[in-house]
Amino acid sequence: MIMLKSRDEIAILRIGNRIAAEILNVLSKEVKVGVTTLELEKIAECEIKKRGAISAFKGYNGYPASICTSVNEVVVHGIPSYRKLEEGDIISLDIGVNYKGYCGDVSETFAVGKINEKKRKLMDVTKKALYLGINEAKDGNRVGDISNAVQTFVESNGFSVVRDFVGHGIGKSVHEEPQVPNFGKKEQGPRLKPGMVLAIEPMVNLGCLDVEILKDGWTAVTKDKLPSAHFEHTVVILEDKTEILTQI
Ligand code: MF3
Ligand code: CO
Hints:
Blueprint: H1 7-28, H2 37-50, E1 54-55, E2 67-71, E3 74-76, E4 90-99, E5 102-111, H3 117-136, H4 143-156, E6 160-161, E7 167-169, E8 176-180, E9 197-200, E10 203-205, E11 211-213, E12 220-222, E13 228-230, E14 233-237, E15 242-244
Antiparallel strand pairs: 1-4, 2-4, 3-12, 4-5, 6-10, 7-8, 7-9, 9-14, 10-13, 11-12, 14-15
Bound molecules: 2-amino-4-trifluoromethylsulfanyl-butyric acid and cobalt (II) ion.
2-amino-4-trifluoromethylsulfanyl-butyric acid is lined by residues 57, 60-61, 63, 68, 77, 94, 96, 105, 107, 168, 174, 199, 232.
């Protein structure tokens, strides 16, 4: 069942999602050569707490950390570790917070120092795909309109869309219905209505779309070990507009 949120719930979601965006902004300034992903985790923990929220990821299905730090070939769910960021890496930071019982979810991929042209294009295309998807996320459209906009743009740029993970509804739980795939057909899937809150999150691979999970049970990497990018916003569909909640 797709849970439509009331005005009061949306007011809380606005605050929590803004907090998630603030944490992402703080962390973005810490992404540099030599920093470990565990250092980013520690900063995130402190910043989340400071704002009266908790991580929505820690403990979720047993996930062991507060944020996801996915470097290069890691698609999503990279667990913070002693891995040091190196010049030329790209890192997706995925932040999920729970504020007063409601979740916020945001992600962005950042460059570490100077990156090559291919990685730059991968990041640019993934970010643009997210915004094209958000553009279709409006009252009266269907989930497939979002999916198709993302897929068409990504594939026309020669990259591939990950199938194994999808965007999602969000609210009291970080993952709610509906699923929001980054591939699909126009005018298919659930109809979008005011009060729906969606996390839209294209994951785009430079090479093949295949993904595998490492032995830790979480880290999702590309099979061909080529880089992957990930951008995510949480949005609320209103009668007259769609609002991006994960903005500062
Ligand atoms: N933003 C990701 C998602 O929406 C992160 C989930 S990590 C988990 O699926 F630990 F919570 F699973
Ligand atoms: Co998400």
